[in-house]
Every structure is written in C-alpha cells, then in structure tokens.
Amino acid sequence: MPEVRRTVIAPQSGESFSVRRGDMIRIIDPQGQQVADLWAFVIDGPALDWLSTSQTRDITEKMFPKVGDRFYSTRGEPLLTLVEDASPGPHDMLFPACNRWLYERAGLPDHPSCQDNLVKALEKAGITLPAIPDPVDFFQNSLPAPDGRLDVHASINPPGGYVALRAERDLLLVVTACSVDFHPTNGDRCTEVVVEISK
Ligand SMILES: [Zn+2]
Question: What is the CA(117)–ligand 1 centre distance, in A?
C-alpha cells in the first residue's frame, strides 16, 4: 500500500501542502455540498509562479475542467492534471475566492474567507504573494446561464464526492474549505474537506 498523507481541513479554514512531481492528490468532500478551493504555486523556479485559471481556460479552450485536462501556470507550464472525478461537478474556474470585501458587502465584517485563509496558509510556509490568484473551485455549482448570468447555486456534490489530481512538477498547494455560510453555495453549512496525498 502506498503511504498516504491525510489532512482534515477544518470548516472555514485552509492548509498548505508540499507535493512532488508524480504525487497523487485527492480532494474529498466527506459530508457533501462543500466547495474546496485549490491554489498551486511553483516556489522552486526562477520566480514565483502559480496556477492561472485564465491561462487554463485559454490553453484547454474550456471554461470548466474535465478528466484528463491539465491546469496551467501564468507562464503556461502544466502544473496538475485532473485524473479522476468522482463527483457530478461542476468545478468553477470563473470566480475569485470568497474574500473579506464580499462578506463586508453582505454585512458580515470579520467573517472568515478563503482569500484570508490562503494568505494565512502561505504565511506559515514563509511566502508572501504580490497578488491573490483566483482558485479552482471544486464542487462549486455556478454554471453560466444562457443569458450570461453567473449565479452560485448549492453544490450538488454528494457525501464522499472527490477529485484526484496528479502533480506534474514539485508544487506548494493550498486547499481551503470554503467559508460561505450566508448563501446556499455550501448547502447552507460549512463542513470539512479532506486532502490525501500519495506517491
Ligand atoms: Zn470561499
């Protein structure tokens, strides 16, 4: 049996993970309807680089990732491949992570947010970002309507639904269990996300 590093990300929080090229990463939603935001950073290159959802949309010519698709960096380097999707999806690549300003607009100052949880997780790893990249929002049910509207509906991911990714180079990953609890995004409640990393 391969060794598996298993981490439970508490509701409304985030964690960072170092992975090596070839590692497999499973992002699991144990209770269902919980969005998991993913960022990936190249920290061993000539300059800090990261997963870019806009480059990924451009290079894959898709708005939403499917099995076999890769996720690309700001320089167009493949960082991760989606190798298995044991969820009904969809997986968003259009939205920013939830952030303090979104919560302030909703009348919820000092609310936890995925952006703040990203920054905290990176601080622990000794990294300061010049800007906040947009994440891949796994299990986020926000497909565009035919008229172009972008409504976020409750996730349809069932308990235990997961995605599996392969690292295409050494990376620092950050995964957050999305903090939205005033809107149906996460099924009206925030729950944990589990990350399993294996060789
Ligand atoms: Zn969030």
Answer: 9
pLDDT confidence of residue 162: 98
Angle ∠(128,129,134) on CA atoms, nearest 5: 140
CA of 91 to the centre of ligand 1 (A): 13
Q: Which of 152, 196, 165 is nearest to 35 (CA)?
A: 152
> Percent of the chain scored above 70 by pLDDT?
99
The closest alpha carbon to 51, from 19, 17, 76, 18, belongs to 76
Other residues' Cβ atoms within 10 Å of the Cβ of residue 11: 18
Ion ligand 1 residues within 5 Å by Cβ: 98, 114, 178-179
DSSP, res 55: H
Q: What is the dihedral of CA 21, 127, 119, 54, to 10 degrees?
A: -50
CA dist 23 and 110 (Å) reads: 36
| Model confidence pLDDT, tens digit, residues 92-133 | 999 999 999 999 999 999 999 999 999 999 999 999 998 999
CA of 37 to the centre of ligand 1 (A): 7
Q: Distance between alpha carbon 16 and the CA centroid of its chain, in Å?
A: 11
